[in-house]
Write a structure and sequence with these properties.
Layout lengths: L1 E12 L7 E14 L3 E11 L3 E8 L2 E3 L2 E13 L7 E2 L15 E2 L1 E14 L2 E13 L10 E13 L2 E10 L3 E8 L4
Length: about 180
């Protein structure tokens, strides 16, 4: 299913070291989803009196023999955005080797590839490789903002949704355990 949403957005926020802010503006969002995989495409643009923000996330799915492959891309751009609207590297799925919400910036570019292999019944082996970066207060992503990572683990489709236990390693000695119970909305 595809959904187009157009609306108004009002927001007020408080950030450390900055005056309280409030603004109003418009937002447009296009979302594509499937029953089996949830959200597979989302593009969003918000234009307010205080900030501008655009984001895109898309994923595909295919097979090579019994291995399922799912490439994923995320792009984000913001100008004057509040801290809480910054782009965390990897979004809701996170980035291999980093904790969820880490590496937040007003620009993001990320490319990932997930490979899953059925083990037995609903149990799957999962391997994800990713590269990407975030930057704050710059006009472009620069070398210092880029990283790469790898996450390996197991997962299963259960009555409460997907269950995952994975361990990720990233450049510069970063690593993190990733546990997910159910689907994030």
């Amino acid at each position: 299913d595809w959904v187009l949403a157009v609306g108004a957005e009002g927001r007020t926020w408080d950030e450390p070291g900055r005056a309280n802010r409030s603004t109003i503006g418009g937002v447009v969002r296009v979302t594509g989803a499937s029953r089996q995989r949830g959200r597979v495409f989302q593009a969003e643009a918000a234009w307010t009196g205080m900030y501008h923000r655009a984001a895109f996330e898309g994923t595909l799915q295919g097979r090579v023999g019994v291995v399922r492959i799912a490439p994923r891309v995320r792009l984000g751009w913001g100008e004057g955005i509040p801290l809480q609207l910054g782009f965390p590297l990897g979004g809701d799925e996170g980035f291999p080797g980093y904790h969820l919400g880490e590496r937040r910036g007003d620009r993001e570019a990320m490319l990932g590839l997930l490979m899953t292999l059925p083990i037995r019944g609903p149990l799957l082996a999962r391997l994800e490789v990713a590269a990407g970066g975030t930057e704050a207060k710059t006009g472009r992503l620069v070398d210092a903002g880029w990283t790469a990572g790898l996450r390996l683990g197991v997962g299963a489709e259960t009555p409460v949704g997907p269950v995952r236990l994975e361990y990720g390693v990233a450049l510069r000695g970063r690593n993190a355990l990733f546990v997910r119970l159910g689907r994030w909305f």
